[in-house]
Write a structure and sequence with these properties.
This protein is an alpha/beta fold. It is built from 8 helices and 14 strands. The strands form 2 sheets. It has a 10-stranded mixed beta sheet, sandwiched between helices. Strands 8-9-11-10 form a 4-stranded antiparallel beta sheet, with helices on one face. Helix 2 packs parallel to helix 8 and helix 4 runs antiparallel to helix 5. Bound molecules: magnesium ion.
């Protein structure tokens, strides 16, 4: 059964219906967490892009955000008591192009291997030469296999996309690519991971989980941290956040997950984010 949560602070001044949501883990004190965000001096919200802020499209380049998301992001960016970060498997450049905003939030692309602050400072994680060489090898193999048009070359990885292809064809290129890439990564610090609509070869130590770890380490005294995502790659982040924040699966249909809560896009997602904006905004005003 989906449940309605009330968000209220100690003095009862804020009484916002936060959303309808499905609480998946009995161990999480959602009420306590929501009260905490209403009074916290700063919150961190990490958002996946594809499937979370934007619906899937056959053509990846057309995956623009749900209506209302751009406005919500713009408001979140303006709040100085909220640090908003988009964490995606896509490149920073890709996310910028799809969001098409006047002002951007902090973005961590390629699962955190490249980062750009809201002020435009761009940094990347240094990749060992062995990783570079393996990625070059994987690139060459995909060209030879004749599937280069389905590939996306990123700073720290190579992704093969099959969104929209017939099931028979997907099975074929998936099996073939897995075999080739498995040979390439043998004995090396790389991994092959599946995501919704494709497969990717990338360094082992760079995941959305390590991105969350990095954030948590920046705030040793603790801050409310929320992570929202839909994909298998978001499960790494959910696991790291366990007991340390609120993890939210954003998906139309339920699937087994490590997340604390499940909400459906776009309506519940927009309601949840709008309420966060309001609560953060009210708290921010009190500070000034
Ligand atoms: Mg996603």
């Amino acid at each position: 059964m989906r449940k309605k949560k009330e968000l209220s602070c100690n003095n009862g001044q804020i009484h916002d219906t936060i959303q309808t949501m499905k609480i998946l883990k009995n161990s999480i004190n959602v009420d306590g967490f929501l009260r905490k965000i209403a009074i916290a001096p700063k919150n961190v919200i990490l958002l996946d892009y594809d499937g979370t802020l934007a619906p899937f499209r056959k053509n990846r380049e057309k995956a623009v955000p749900y209506i209302g998301i751009r406005e919500i992001l713009t408001k979140l960016i303006d709040l100085d008591n909220c640090r908003t970060i988009i964490v995606s498997g896509r490149t920073v450049k890709d996310i910028h192009a799809l969001l098409n905003l006047d002002k951007y939030p902090e973005i961590w692309g390629c699962h955190g291997a490249e980062r750009i602050t809201s002020d435009g400072d761009y940094t990347t994680i240094r990749l060992p030469s062995e990783t570079r060489e393996a990625l070059n090898e994987a690139t060459l193999a995909m060209r030879q296999e004749g599937v280069w048009n389905n590939c996306e070359e990123k700073y720290s990885s190579l992704a093969l996309h099959w969104r929209g292809l017939p099931a028979v064809e997907i099975k074929l290129i998936k099996t073939r690519t897995k075999k080739i890439w498995n040979d390439i990564i043998k004995g090396k610090d790389l991994t092959i991971s599946e995501f919704d609509g494709g497969i990717e070869i990338r360094p082992k130590g760079i995941t959305k989980g390590t991105a969350v770890e990095f954030i948590l380490n920046q705030y040793p005294h603790g801050l409310p941290v929320i992570y929202m995502g839909d994909d298998f790659t978001d499960e790494d982040a959910f696991r790291v956040l366990k007991g340390k924040g609120l993890s939210i699966l954003v998906k139309s249909e339920y699937r087994p997950t490590e997340a604390d809560i499940w909400i459906k896009p776009p309506d519940e997602l927009l309601e949840f984010l709008s309420n966060l904006v309001r609560v953060f905004g009210e708290n921010n005003e009190k500070k000034h």
